[in-house]
Amino acid sequence: MIVGLLSDSHDKIDRVRAAVDRLVEAGAEVLVHAGDLCGPEIVDACSVLPLHFVFGNNDVGNESLLLAAAAECGANCLEWGGVVEVAGRRLAVTHGHTRLDVRRVLDAEPDFLLTGHSHVVHDREREGVRWINPGALHRARTYTVATLDLADDTLDVLEVE
Q: Are 138 and 12 a contacting pair, CB within 8 Å?
């Protein structure tokens, strides 16, 4: 199972559509957005595949709009963070801007912690949990998303024009 990862889209709808196309071409079967969507159009654009997403600090005030978009599109909004199981693997997702949210999802003992917020790609392991940030689609030197192949734990970072 290949998971498409994106974050920090900041309502950049054309860039999000290009990113989703890139992830679909790379074989993504499900998408995870790690926050800072900023508008319901982003939920719709990402819902071409099953979608799980969380709120980010720039989503404050838009939570009800994003929840309504999730209900309309059949997406799974984890609000400020949660854990989903995909292909037998536990994926914790939070935006990463508060330690409280990070600690709360780590308490569920996930295999992966998927975050955003920093707008910088990272892939590291801490205490048996792999922490991944796919980068950002706004305010980044290079716009990036990533695929995570859960069959062999391969992470591929993809540039988005």
A: yes
